[in-house]
Specification:
Layout (H helix, E strand, L loop, with lengths): L17 E10 L2 E11 L4 E5 L6 H8 L7 E6 L2 E2 L4 H6 L1 E4 L11 H11 L4 H14 L15 H12 L6 E5 L7 H18 L2 E6 L10 E6 L2 E7 H8 L4 H9 L10
Parallel strand pairs: 3-8, 3-9, 6-7, 7-8
Antiparallel strand pairs: 1-2, 1-4, 4-5, 9-10
Helix pairs in contact: 3-4, 5-6, 7-8
This protein binds adenosine-5'-triphosphate.
Length: 262
């Protein structure tokens, strides 16, 4: 073959921030996840949308290795969470649904403790804590006891803490549940700025449809199955709807009239 016609070398595809491939999970005989597959691109804000019982927390537990994946595979930047767990989990930051800060410690003390757990020395920890608190708009709360903070501020500290070891993928499980409208908006803005400024890949699980922006990637999980995935705008076009609430109803057939998903 003449040199000019030689095939170009294939560029290796960059791994997804998160790849969930064919994951099925049972609780006894109950199938909570059924052949679930989707990806989160690096630097993207991906919403895992599903009503209560859809399987969001189960998936969360499998990604964070609370449960072991038995069918299918989960990879973080190409590292399998079961077989290469330290490389995979090093790249992961997590904000759990339940509050996990020590209420009796100050904001800084909580963050120092977390930095030490990740092997970050005191000098570097101080620098990073100043950085994450500034990003979260919490610089003036550094010395405050967590007990004295509102629910919204506590969540912001948890997000700042999850970013302290500079993960490339951040998982948040229903992070705005129980917060008022202003606190919800602040938290969404905080995480969206981490995506824009730090190139973080985010998986944001929620049942709150109004948290979705047109440029977000969306995965619709319903009764353990992925029924739709793609950019929010593309989902609207495919379903012939003008808002995500109508799209969700069309995709899932769910009845939202009793206020399950505002
Ligand atoms: N430990 C468990 N044992 C048995 N069944 C469970 C367990 N945890 C969850 N399930 C069931 O698995 C299914 C998925 O639950 P999961 O908690 O993952 O959903 P979810 O989307 O996170 O909902 P929620 O927001 O209510 O937590 C549900 O039918 C639930 O009842």
């Amino acid at each position: 073959m003449p040199k000019s016609q030689a095939p170009l070398p294939q560029a290796a595809a960059a791994p997804a921030a998160l790849e969930v491939a064919g994951v099925t999970h049972f609780y006894g005989k109950r199938k909570a996840l059924d052949n679930v597959s989707f990806t989160v691109a690096p630097g993207s804000f991906t919403v895992l949308l599903g009503l209560n019982g859809a399987g969001k927390s189960t998936l969360f537990s499998l990604v964070t290795r609370l449960y072991v994946t038995r069918t299918g595979a989960i990879k973080i930047f190409g590292y399998d969470v079961v077989r290469q767990s330290s490389q995979a989990l090093r790249r992961l930051g997590v904000v759990f649904q339940a509050r996990t800060l020590d209420l009796e410690l100050t904001v800084t003390q909580n963050l120092i403790y977390h930095a030490a757990l990740h092997g970050i020395g005191p000098f570097e920890a101080k620098r990073r804590i100043a950085d994450v608190l500034a990003r979260a708009g919490l610089a003036d709360r550094a010395k405050e006891k967590v007990r004295n903070l509102s629910g919204g501020y506590i969540r912001r500290v948890e997000i700042a803490r999850a970013f302290l070891h500079h993960p490339e993928l951040l998982l948040l499980d229903e992070p705005t549940v129980g917060l008022d409208i202003k606190a919800r908006a602040d938290i969404i803005a905080q995480v969206r700025s981490l995506v824009a400024d730090a190139g973080l890949g985010v998986l944001w699980t929620t049942h709150l449809i109004d948290e979705i922006a047109p440029t977000d990637s969306v995965v619709v999980l319903h009764h353990g199955k992925v029924l739709e995935k793609g950019l929010a705008t593309d989902i609207l076009a495919r379903t012939g709807t003008s808002d995500m609430r109508a799209a969700f109803v069309k995709i899932t057939g769910a009845d939202l009239s009793h206020g399950d998903a505002p």
